[in-house]
């Protein structure tokens, strides 16, 4: 009986805290989302708009992750493979670490120092993450050469839609 209750509790907990694809797959960002501030490795503030402007004219993959996230760490080798297989594509890593110290430690621990990294000092709940319906990590988005959203929702770097979207944008 205890075993059945345990399985029931796990299934309910699992269902209520899993990624759920948003009902509306957005193709652009709101003004508020673009104004969202993040910090780079040196602690300098930047906005989503400034990050997109740095990559304008290129295809950009955004990877939401954190060093405390078991699913993110499990996906990291495949995310690195996606990056290796697409050397002409830009990748930006948006961290949801809980502190600057945690951000710095994760970058060091997971060999991310040579990547384009930012973290949400404001925390998970902010204008950008709310706008993109961020409900779990890891999460991946593909941004086209004009800074529009080409692939809104992917939960794994192995999602074939990511590569298909990149390939379509390269044509």
Automatic annotation (TrEMBL):
<protein>
    <submittedName>
        <fullName>Alkyl hydroperoxide reductase</fullName>
    </submittedName>
</protein>
<dbReference type="InterPro" id="IPR013766">
    <property type="entry name" value="Thioredoxin_domain"/>
</dbReference>
<dbReference type="Pfam" id="PF13905">
    <property type="entry name" value="Thioredoxin_8"/>
</dbReference>
<dbReference type="InterPro" id="IPR050553">
    <property type="entry name" value="Thioredoxin_ResA/DsbE_sf"/>
</dbReference>
<feature type="domain" description="Thioredoxin">
    <location>
        <begin position="27"/>
        <end position="171"/>
    </location>
</feature>
<dbReference type="InterPro" id="IPR012336">
    <property type="entry name" value="Thioredoxin-like_fold"/>
</dbReference>
<dbReference type="InterPro" id="IPR036249">
    <property type="entry name" value="Thioredoxin-like_sf"/>
</dbReference>
